[in-house]
Design a protein that fits this description.
This protein has 315 residues and is α/β, with parallel strands linked by helices. It has two domains: 7-87, Winged helix-like DNA-binding domain superfamily/Winged helix DNA-binding domain (Arc Repressor Mutant, subunit A), CATH 1.10.10; 93-308, D-Maltodextrin-Binding Protein, domain 2, CATH 3.40.190.290. It contains ten helices and 13 strands. The chain has helices spanning 7-19, 22-29, 33-47, 63-87, 103-114, 128-136, 152-155, 204-214, 231-241, 282-298; strands at 52-54, 59-61, 93-96, 120-123, 142-145, 158-173, 184-185, 193-194, 220-221, 245-248, 257-263, 266-276, 307-308. The strands form four sheets. Strands 5, 6, 7, 10, 11, 12 and 13 form a seven-stranded mixed sheet that branches. Strands 1-2 form a two-stranded antiparallel ribbon. Helix 5 links the parallel strand 3 (93-96) and strand 4. Helix 1 (7-19) packs across helix 2 (22-29). It comes from Streptomyces liangshanensis. One of its GO terms (cellular component) is protein-DNA complex. GO terms for molecular function: DNA binding; DNA-binding transcription factor activity.
Amino acid sequence: MSRDIDPRLLRAFVTAAEELHFTRAAARLYVAQQALSRDIRRLEGELGAELFVRTTRRVALTADGERLLPYARGVLAAQDRLRAAAAEGPRPLLVDLNSEGLTSGRVLARARELAPDHELMARFESGLTGAAAEILAGRLDVSFGYADGLAPGLRAGLRSQLVRYEPMAVLLPYDHPLAGRAEVPLAALAGERVYAGAGNPRTAEWTELARQLFAGRSIAVAEPAPMAVGREEFRRIMAKHRTPVLTVVDSPEMPGSVLRPLVEPVPLSPVFLVWREGLKHAGVAALRAAAAELGRSGGWLEVLPASWVPRAPQH
């Protein structure tokens, strides 16, 4: 038996079974009677069963025809439901923003303006590595982050578009010696242990970015620690451990800490829009257009000579 049966053959079978008259069945299907007869014979060959008994006076279903008819109807009904679902338009696009207030949120807001008839739903994952796994599994559609820091196995199934070189910053305890400065030179962090998600498998790309930035500057990546979820928990952890946290300039202020841009040089985090290879959805096109538009108007892709960017991955 063939593994794949053409739905056209099943429709010929069901129509002929309903009419029990090949001329009327052919007329319903807008085909010649000879074509209908040929399709029935082909289906019988694929199923390995005779479906009809035909004489010069009548057409009747065989026992196999009676037995298989409900299954054929079920397949055609499922196909009709599939067509109806497709006609309703694309499903909502699930877009991971990582956190509120970041570049990703601005891109999503503009994309919604560009594609008002499509639903773009925000989600909040922690880290692009974790989000990429969700994208590849089909549980998420789009995310943002440092795509070059993903493992090759994850990158292989994804597509990406550079959105912004985002200046990086550090969250400091409000009474840290560097908190009084408007900007923090990287050299001033020498001897510090800075938290960058080490040990969290969902944020491995961010830890990789931090290791590149800290290399040769006597700045250590802080040891693994449970991720603080929520503002109050962040305040408690910051007060207890007093560990500076590597972030970006658009990161929201958090209780018990101050946000300070990093300078000399200004480190830039490459933010990519990331989606699954082969994903077809108008929302992805809107996000890409929004990212390009905002990048042009905001100068997001400019890299000044006094900046630092991570090295490109080796393919």
